[in-house]
Amino acid sequence: MIGVTREGLWDKINEYIHKFWPLFRTWNGSIPEIQIMEADHMEPILRSSVNIKKGYVYDFLHPWLGTGLLTSTGQKWFAHRKLITPTFHFKILENFQEVFVEKTQILVEKLQKEVGNSKGFDVYPYITRCALDIICETAMGTEVNAQENINSPYVDAIYDISEIIIRRMLRPWLRNDFVYSFTKDGKRYKECLEILHSFTTKVIREKKANLKNQTTQQETQHDDLGRKRRVAFLDLLLEASQGDTVLSDEDIREEVDTFMFEGHDTTSASLCWTLFLLGNYPEVQEKVFEEQASIFQDSGRQPNTQDLAEMKYLERVIKESLRLYPSVPIILRHLTEDVTVGEHTLPAGSHATLHIYHAHRNPKYFPNPEAFDPDNFLPERVQGRHPYAYVPFSAGSRNCIGQKFALLEEKTVLSAVLRRFRVRALDAPSDVRLYAELVLRPQGGIRLVIEPR
Ligand code: HEM
């Protein structure tokens, strides 16, 4: 893969997978990498409580995310996962509904400007900015106003850094930090890191100072204007770090940066792919709309968590969309103990690459794998299917901690967009080329035409 262009990488991976299905070995220098795409083969790796170390690709994220939940391993990961899990409890997520709704309203107003644009527009930047607004407020309790403030250095830095990291991954001669620091990308990378870290550090410092100054319960629960204070993940982490398990400022920054990265790029991709598929399958879109109509009747009221729970069909649509276009298409593990996969033993020290995208298109589990069919997630079809045939949020102990959050956010956004607009995609699935990156993105964006309902 060395020297393959960003645009050509996905096609190359695809070609090899079809040629060597279901399992093959590649070499990264002297390290064997086993490419895995069958549910049976993924299971022993994902179920293991020992093989939880991430592959070397995640090292490229360390300068930004340090060793937060996504990138850490061993005792640190275990202790932090235990500490952070309660902050994703349903009761806490319910509090975020207000933020989801507020930011979605801004999105819908922005999209309104595209009505009548018959040439179409790329919906990706609209969705990304909305997802950024949501994660910024829920993770840090602060606003970046990405939807209003298009020229924000923070938002630009978030955009640029993911792209720069991928370019570096594909160019081994740039792995040396000293050499890299003299390149154009290396300089921009340093700049982005400074912007992102100083923003998070500033927010943490302010929150800590506020926490110290708020002595009464009344002060803790209300802001300076007497409004009810919204609790963010950061508040919960700060609270937790006052107990027995003390998190350092550095620990907290790593976790908040991890939420910022994992919590917006993945949901943006999933939302965009869902709109793309609905724009290609108008009959499915109509069924989504009918469900919305039955929940809201003619009222223009905003959804609460009870409404979201009733959006069963929309949930199947999101799940099916994540089957065809899983936001995280590939995950990697550095095996620390031998593992048996089918008739092979993968030795400790080797690396395993788990191809989620290709696993999801296995005709053994999804008989018509390329078709968009939300009924694939009817309870009777899910029952009896191999539990590792569908793993968009990974599985086992290192599964996605934010999956419930993602589903609530996505339902809120899609409900508002589809109640207000009818969407049509300008490209068919067969026309779209993909970027094989940390997150599965379309080359050329997602081009839609929208009209009012
Ligand atoms: C559609 C949306 C999402 C998808 C498809 C997704 C997918 C994934 C996947 C596949 C992993 C495993 C990565 C690996 O093993 O390398 C993961 C881990 C993780 N995700 Fe998500 N994610 C989504 C949304 C979110 C959100 C909204 C948050 C936070 C607010 C989040 C936070 C995390 C964290 C912290 C981890 C690391 C967990 C650990 O290792 O303990 N994700 N996600």
UniProtKB/TrEMBL annotation:
The protein's required cofactors: heme
GO cellular component terms attached to this protein's record: endoplasmic reticulum membrane
Domain of life: Eukaryota
Annotated TM spans: none
Record has Hydrolase as a keyword: no
Keyword Oxidoreductase: yes
CDD domains the UniProt entry points to: CYP4 (cd20628)
Membrane topology per record: Peripheral membrane protein
Keywords: Endoplasmic reticulum, Heme, Iron, Membrane, Metal-binding, Microsome, Monooxygenase, Oxidoreductase
Binding site for heme: 400
Pfam family, one: p450
UniProt GO MF annotations: heme binding; iron ion binding; monooxygenase activity; oxidoreductase activity, acting on paired donors, with incorporation or reduction of molecular oxygen
Subcellular location field: Endoplasmic reticulum membrane; Microsome membrane
Family as reported in the entry's similarity comment: Belongs to the cytochrome P450 family.
Protein name listed in UniProt: Cytochrome P450
